[in-house]
Design brief:
About 25% of the residues lie in helices and about 40% in strands. It has about 160 residues and is α+β, with helices and mostly antiparallel strands. Keywords: Nucleotidyltransferase, RNA-directed DNA polymerase, Transferase.
Length: about 160
């Protein structure tokens, strides 16, 4: 075999190694409740739902501690008139039916109004579920948020009630 052929083989192995490293660097997450509807959410004490202002537009929001990231419906996202940026590394999201979806876009710096408080939230455009927005553990843990005694009546944010 000529040197030229041998070089192509090395190049191919290097390319495979780079692809494998890129795949490892992708962030993996879950979005199991993306298919949950409002009636199911009302019966589930592990979630909190409501209508809140997102960038001055009313949005139906599901707060879900079982979801790793925060999402925005691809039907609702255009209403915000904000350009998504590229997420590096991308995310591999496992949705309710077990399928894995690669996403590489994120809408950064959305403004979520809860009571008299305004919070910044980054949202990944994904699907057309029953909710306009799903707030996951990324935002909940960053803002030290939970709901009182498993009851979705009061959302606690950073030690204060909203």
């Amino acid at each position: 075999m000529s040197k030229h052929g041998h070089g192509n083989q090395k190049s191919s192995k290097r390319s495979q190694r780079i692809k494998a490293e890129a795949k490892k660097s992708q962030i993996r997450g879950r979005a199991y409740n993306a298919s949950m509807n409002a009636a199911e959410a009302a019966k589930d004490s592990s979630v909190f739902t409501g209508t809140f202002s997102l960038n001055d537009h009313f949005a139906t929001v599901l707060f879900d501690s079982g979801v790793d990231f925060s999402f925005i419906s691809t039907k609702f996202a255009p209403i915000l008139n904000m350009k998504p940026s590229i997420a590096i590394p991308g995310h591999v999201i496992e949705i309710a039916d077990g399928k894995k979806v690669k996403v590489d876009r994120i809408i950064r710096g959305c403004k979520l109004e809860l009571g008299s408080s305004l919070f910044s939230i980054d949202l990944i455009p994904l699907g057309h579920g029953s909710f306009d927005v799903i707030v996951g553990m990324d935002w909940l843990s960053h803002n030290k948020s939970s709901w009182e005694n498993g009851s979705p009546t009061r959302l606690l944010t950073g030690g204060g009630k909203t």
